[in-house]
């Protein structure tokens, strides 16, 4: 019963976050696009001039299942829905960022665990230096260098939509995007592994005859999984944000085209739909991870882990009678 109430409580918190975040985004977007709205006659003549009335109408439409209309004539005349336009573009962003994320997660954790066992030794120092160098170089600079070398090594310099060439043309962008993510995952894996292998519990398990595989599966793996699960959402947000730059450079038809068009023509409903889908995705992911973390690590303070910006201090007082 207590678990069900806990889940319901979390759902209500996430719902409140969604409503507040979406409301703030609505006003921020409408204020930022005031000049663009005035320039675009198609938008100006079709929206309510009062921002508060506009806000009320937007929520009314949203609660009735409508994401609003497209104002620009060239898109409106094609009779395409907002959801179709979004997912038709965003499918490539999902594929691109998901492959990058999985690759970074695997490589980052493997390197992190390895250098933790070689702490302050030559492999640790060399790998840290190499990864740090690539992670600190601006993505734009690496992308430009990659474009220049495409003629030398004969790999695609631009995105190719036909399968299987689409996957081949994504290899270089994925590699470039993964440098920063690998560094983040590696740093966390190195830190938690170092803490575990120097702990009394680990050393005791080692003295009773457990080999490396047993120690890794029974002692280290759980701690590593918990630690990385807590960072998945912020790491993916960083990856999703930085992917916009790489998409434009390598002509990947993803979210960058959708966003740039929406902002250029002040398509408020397109922009809001982008944020709605991303908010829902991130909140569902965060909620699911919190349930998983509660299951594999029940002693944790779940609420504190769910929201990095909320901290609860629990004080236990012992009363002597």
Descriptive notes:
By secondary structure, the protein is mostly helical. The chain folds into two domains: 1-72 and 265-307; 91-264, Orthogonal Bundle (MetI-like fold). Helices cover 76% and strands 0% of the residues. It contains 15 helices and no strands. It has helices at residues 2-32, 34-39, 41-44, 51-63, 73-76, 82-117, 122-136, 139-153, 165-197, 200-207, 212-229, 232-249, 255-264, 268-296, 302-306. The longest helix has 36 residues, at 82-117. The model is unreliable at 302-321 (pLDDT under 50).
Tell me the helix content: over 70%
CATH superfamily of the largest domain: MetI-like
Order of helices and strands: HHHHHHHHHHHHHHH
The number of distinct β-strands equals: 0
Indicate the CATH class of the largest domain. Answer: Mainly Alpha
Sheet/helix structural class: mainly alpha
CATH architecture of the largest domain: Orthogonal Bundle
CA-based gyration radius: 24 Å
If helices are DSSP runs of H or I spanning 4 or more residues, what is the number of helices?
A: 15
Q: What is the average per-residue confidence, as pLDDT, rounded to a whole number? A: 81
Query: Which runs of at least 5 residues are low in confidence (pLDDT < 50)?
Result: 302-321
| Approximate shape | globular
What is the straight-line distance between the termini? Answer: 32 Å
What is CATH's topology name of the largest domain? MetI-like fold
The number of domains is 2
